[in-house]
């Protein structure tokens, strides 16, 4: 079982990574099965950490479920903006396989600063049929117009 035992990934320092680099590190970690790094990339106050307060429990869950049923085919950061010294947002396109189904989405990820660096807090997602045109045309204003502003 691949796993990082600290807040630093063996292939890049999570602590020094910019939000767009964290997205790239998370994609690589999913592909390698480094679910410890995925866990470490989350902000301590994230919804994810509320659902999985124990790192080892998440790693076991991920190995039993995500490793076999979830594959990231493609992930591209499309837009970025820093709102303050504490908050950063970016928009990324993602194509994933869930079991035998391909799902395309565009997400607006929110990152918040911690004493260790930027950490992923949550995302707002639009599935392909919810956005008009090409993913590269999506802007932050498209997320502001959504009536269902669910962050996960």
Structural account:
This protein has 152 residues and is of the alpha+beta class. Helices cover 30% and strands 33% of the residues. Strands 1-2-3-4 form a 4-stranded antiparallel β-sheet. Residues 1-12 have low confidence and may be disordered.
What descriptive keywords fit this protein?
disordered N terminus; alpha+beta; single chain; 5 helices
Short description, anyone?
30% of the residues lie in helices and 33% in strands. The chain is α+β, with helices and mostly antiparallel strands and 152 residues long.
Shape: globular
β-strand percent reads 25-35%
Percent in helix: 25-40%
Low-confidence stretches: 1-12
Task: Supply Rg.
Answer: 15 Å
Topology order in helix (H) and strand (E) letters: HHHHEEEEH
Distance between the termini: 27 Å
Q: How do the strands of the widest beta sheet line up side by side?
A: 1-2-3-4
Kindly name the structural category. Answer: alpha+beta
The biggest beta sheet is recorded as:
4 strands, antiparallel
Mean pLDDT: 87
Give me the count of strands. Answer: 4
- Total helices: the number is 5
Secondary structure layout plus pairing:
Elements lengths: L18 H14 L2 H6 L6 H5 L3 H15 E13 L4 E12 L2 E14 L2 E11 L12 H5 L8
Antiparallel strand pairs: 1-2, 2-3, 3-4
